[in-house]
## 1
Amino acid sequence: MVYKALKKVSFLKGLVQKDIGQILSIAKHKKFKAGEIIFHKSEIGNHFFIVKSGKIKIFTFLGPEKKKTFAFLSRGDMFGEMSLLGGKTRSASAQAIENTELLVISKKNFRDLIMSNPDFTFKLLNTVVERLNKANKEIESMLFHNILGRLADSIIELSKNNHSTPVCLKIDQNELAECVGTTRVPVCRAINILKRSKTIEYKRGELKIMDMQRLKSIAGSGNN
Ligand code: CMP
């Protein structure tokens, strides 16, 4: 049952039953309540995690008031590998934002898995490279865009696995500000600009993308 559920999802998709069986045999299952912190940035890393169900936020604080969300992770996504692969301490904090169940693998078992299972290792590298590419894009965006362009980038990124038409995201202004890496007031101003140009509709935490082309051109223009 767990195998069936897991083989369909991103990080584990493509691994054969034997590989997923090996992962399940060494993993502990752990539940976290919505809002619970899984670990804090700068702690020593001792475990690797795969999301079995629920939703995780990976984030850091930028000063006392600003947070930056690096990623939202859901079923089948993995995290916690960086500190186990040389970083030693956690590069960011992780928090359950829904009731969540994780597969938890110890540092030793994670290392054994890497050494003994090339398919797993290839998948892991694949995911790390995807994240590095995304982070590079975000650095470009931060260097070249003002808040409006960065907000457009974040909305496009958040819409990636959303197949509704028009794309509809449930996200409040604080969460959007954390994705952009700023505070609520400038994001609120940028939202109003996107609303006035009919690029998005935004009401009570529900954001609809009404003109994806325009949103992409705002994200890509670099001087808005
Ligand atoms: P680790 O440094 O052990 O703990 C924090 C984890 O967050 C890190 O491993 C990665 O698994 C994950 N992480 C860090 N930065 C990002 C990012 N930019 N995108 C997605 N996940 C990340």
## 2
Amino acid sequence: MSRALVSGFNQAPVTRSASLPVPLDPARLPRHVAVIMDGNGRWARQRNLPRVMGHRQGVEALKRTLRRCSDWGIGALTAYAFSTENWSRPGEEVSFLMTLFERVLQRELGALEQEQVRIRFLGDLEPLPTRLQELIAEATARTATNTGIHFNVCTNYGGRAELVRAARLLAQRVARGELDPDQIDETAFAAELHTAGEADPDLLIRTSGEQRISNFLLWQLAYAELHITEVLWPDFDEAALLAALLDYQGRQRRFGGVDPLG
Ligand code: IPE
Ligand code: IPE
Ligand code: MG
């Protein structure tokens, strides 16, 4: 990914290194990485800064991560930006985040478009500020036919809300006579989720050491490998991503089966 994506936002461009780091096996990369970007507030508190400064720095970490995932040939990155529960934070923090999302999207859209990133926003977008909804619609449309990494930003996303919505959509189709309840199987259910069409994440990264899912991708993470790191999200860098990918490559995925070697 070129420097275009990293320009702006008061940071010096980071040197590009498109080649895969030597210890990684290119044949065993995760196709889809999901990340719970946590620890922004603690990062700021450690520096006696307001929490929102952690969010601002967190954007840099997200841009770094997207760039590296794209450079290294990972097909999809899904990032948890704002949960359905995050509305319970102080009003000023919520407003700051909404404005930050708007500013970053506006600033980065041209670069995302140019870099062939296909961006989508997953979640219930209606309660978001109108200007943000407009930018989201524009970004989604302008990048829809891009052929590069799928970048999914979970915004006002909750796993339970997503499952309830899928059940409601299926029930509506049954009520309209379009669907027989016997046709509802895992494929039909998954097709009603926000992530429809995307392979399930192979790897879930959670930063800042918390050992929980926090209502993220409850259906899709069924067989994801979990990597929990103490690194706070604003500090998440290439070395931290490499550590997560190496951890992943050291796992043996069985999907309920048995180890073929014994
Ligand atoms: C994650 O960082 C970002 C969002 C939830 C938007 P936090 O803001 O949760 O940071 P901590 O967990 O308080 O350190
Ligand atoms: C999860 O982090 C949500 C996002 C990263 C957007 P939280 O900080 O909200 O999760 P909890 O409260 O620690 O479970
Ligand atoms: Mg948190």
## 3
Amino acid sequence: MVKKSYTIKGFDCANCAAKSEAHLNKDPRIEKANIDFARDRLDIVYVDEVMSIEDIKNKIKEVEEDELTIVNIGEEVSDYKIFDKHFWILLSRIAFVVVVIILSFTAFRDDSYFWVNFALYLLATVVIAYDIFYRVIKTIIHKENPLDEYLLIVIATVGAFIIASIEKETHVFLEAIMVATLFQIGQVIEGIATNKSKEAIMKAVDLRVEYANLIKNEGVEKVKPEDLKVDDEVLVTTGEYIPIDGVVMKGRAFVDTSSLTGEFVPVAVGVEQEVYSGCLIKEGTLTVKASKEYSNSTVSKIMDLIGESQENKSKADKFVSKFARWYTPSIFIISILVGIIGGAITNDWIAWILLALKMLVVACPCAIVISIPLAYFSGIGLAGKNGIVIKGSNYLDELVGLKKLFTDKTGTLTHGSFSVVKKVAIGISEEQLMEYLCAVESHSIHPIGRAICLNYLDGHEHIQIDEFIEKAGLGVQGEYQSHKLLAGNKRLLEDSQIVVPDVKEDGTIVYLAVDGKYSGYVVVSDEIKEDAYEMVKLLNKNNIDVTLLTGDKEENAKIFCQKLGISSYQSELLPEDKILYINKEIGGKGKVAFLGDGINDAASIKRADVGFAMGGVGSDIAVDSADIVLMTDKPSKVYDAYKIAKITRNVAIFNIAFALFIKLGVEVAAFVTNLVGVPEVIPMWLAVLADTGLTVLLVVNSLLILHRKINR
Ligand code: ADP
Ligand code: MG
């Protein structure tokens, strides 16, 4: 099995995309195809051999008329063109219709010209609607569900045309042709609104860097970032984006990370510091040595996540697909019933069949089908602009119901930059205490470990040891110069039957045991992030309970929570214990989230309904394990994500409710006006206009999410 992803552009409507997806899935060469209309993305899992893009296009062409652009994912696609060939052709077709209408109202106005009008309108109908007819026929031939807006329009147009011919009523011809013409115009306007909206969202989150200045012996050459290799050196100067993750070899600069983090704080960087792709150089020039390939760089990863197709569709998305499945057929049946029953009772068949056709036209579900997925995509775009990467629309849904946030402490609510504030050596010298500690801690990935070694080792190198083991939530062990070393909390030492005295210190105590003998401790202290106060305050205000799950000892947890205003805590937990607490809460009324830094709490992040990981820039573990990645180290971004989820949900619900309200309103109005004998108040073309206008309105409403401010 081979999976391949493509960018696919040009669908007029979410429905067309759904139909093409269904058709692709029937192909024996394809295991599973998935089209994501909002993200312009097609994913195919092939049974064995990969199909050529031409083959895919031809396959879709069997059921779809839209002019599609398909390219491999990552390749450039030109922007949506409004004034393309099709636009001009359609315009000429519309012009032809207009000429026919004018002729029928001037030269052929008299009733005696009925058959001339018949011929003219028939020709005009073919000219304006041939592609709609063709689509419907294709769909039926290939046995895909034909009940879509195109069929509705065909029935309405043909129906009106037949009635006009029987009744010899020229103005009913006008109705028929107006339906098809306005529908076509509507499709173009919808296409512009939808495609331009999608582009706007993609652009808002687009971090791709266009070029890199590769340093070569003979000078500097502009290349694509994709072509860079590890250890290549690039030159980046004021106003340019860093093309690739790497290390600064030369120069100093102020770097603006706002495109990644949503925060406008320039950071000073210099030699030996790491820098990330997608950041803008505010001032200065850097020589950066690539430490990763472009495809593994920060920008590339984030773009992949945002563009990643949504296998986990949002509830609203699912509702819409289900809704479209029963809504269109039901309206279909209701309309036919109205036509037949009304006709039979009043014996005024023509009037009632016309009403039935009108009701069919209003029924197009496009406004909802297009605008809902777009609303979610827009929400994800807004999050991206704020340095929050959300991996799926479904997480926005889950967040709306958020009732409980479990949070890690070290590195999440604290800076995780410990400093050693006290050293107590027992039976060995202080110098030895530090040497032993650093021997094992220099291999630790935990911030405590790094802090202890920071001054002692002057930076980076490791001390050679054997049999190193990192015990998550406890500490570290290893063998150094044939001494068995243990460094960590009380529990770690006690697990090895080492008696440890109770030490009262303000901070985290790291005990050391050498060859099974307690040999002293150091006290490290960490600072609470200013922003953590903000997070607790905001979440409490919104009735979201915050509970601390920490591996730290009880006294520390208690004081910590008092300071922050966190209502409850669980202390002295191993990473696997944290999962137990999350499990207990999951499946209840509210949704449960976990916030961590990705260091030894990846399992908890995965287990929660919504897993937040902090510090997305530069941390692969965080990016991979989380549902939502916070690019900065600010815990209060959890609240922003929650707020964005609410905004998105509200817009989605508004769109659905408003569309149903308008549609039902027009249906009822059409019915009532027909009943009281003034059907001309709601002509058929008005029904088409109501549908198209509504779609454009709701698409724009969805797009506006992208420009919303998050109020705190
Ligand atoms: P938190 O849940 O607050 O993030 P952790 O689970 O990361 O805490 O760690 C829990 C406790 O385990 C720490 O408070 C510390 O006592 C101990 N510990 C973990 N890793 C180390 C280490 N490398 N060195 C010393 N102590 C450690
Ligand atoms: Mg931690």
## 4
Amino acid sequence: MTTLDLFQSPTSDQRESIGPCAFVLRGFALPYVDDLIPALADIEACSPFRNMVTPGGFTMSVALTNCGPLGWTTDRHGYRYTALDPDSGKPWPAMPDVFAALAREAAAAAGFRDFDPDACLVNRYLPGSRLSLHQDRNERDLDAPIVSVSLGMPATFLFGGDARSDRADRVPLHHGDVAVWGGEDRLRYHGVMPLKDAPHSLLGSQRINFTFRRAS
Ligand code: MD3
Ligand code: FE
């Protein structure tokens, strides 16, 4: 052991800092992928992906669904978390154990202990889909981190500042990468550049993103 090791946490070698409280864990989800894909198929069968409408009247190019006790939705009336899928009228599908375990392990690896998500937003990007710069501020507990898992085609993530007009860093996210954000980075503007078509061996021409939050 060198002297330098004393100043590093045990996980510091596998986490890449992109902000004071924002980290990318490259390939962290890879050992989970074989369990995540069939679990996603079950979620989709109950609550299919759909393109929701924003309060401003725009149909999102990203299609979404949810699992867990609460799900994020938008319509002409606003953004909110609901216990029921507005399309089916039934509760969102339960959060699979493998999802919750991955989210908890990734949060811990980034230094956030005891993360207990009650919402998992699942985004599906097709070629050309994009997410414009926004803040995530519909969650009651802004102290809890957010954990994001990328699968399938790569994307360029935009990581801005506390104002929409702040310059945004570009962070490439690949299949299996996990990002964790909290603390002072929790309310930074962020988005995703239009997806290029570069079919992935497992998922074809799509990118799937799981975003775990503590909503209530
Ligand atoms: C940084 N999704 O669903 S996840 C979203 O890749 C969303 O689908 C993107 O933004 C996606 O709201 C990015 C990474 C992410 C999520 C929330 C954040 C980064 C964040 C909140 C604050 C700062
Ligand atoms: Fe977001």
